[in-house]
Known about the structure:
The protein is an alpha+beta fold. The chain is 16% helix and 32% strand.
Amino acid sequence: MLKIRHIALASDHPGKAAEFYKSMFGFKELRRFGLDPAKPDEAPRPSGVFLTDGALNIAILKFADDQLGKGVDYLGIHHFGVVVDDVDAWMEKLIAAGAPSVPYNIPAGTHAEYKFRGPDGVVFDITAHPWEGSAVD
């Protein structure tokens, strides 16, 4: 059985949200991007904070573009991610099952993942490489 190793939350202020989850649950911060420590009340697009609970990578992101079709101001659970053994085989399997791919430009030098849309329009990623901070089984 495959396991979820990544959850992305769409947030209006990733830095403030990350501080809440770190203080409440003890999650460990992995890294941030786009946030200026000298301007703690600002959160430009795109920006984000990556956390871990030791098994799961939790991305808290202020997205620059609308990947869900719900508008760039959508807040909440955005997508989940699963590590697979063979991305190409899984892409064929998902497409054959009628799961449409979601166009996504993977920035150079970042974690490569491929987005699809499942039932009810839920977006999920597949990747061959575990996310930073996620457990490897």
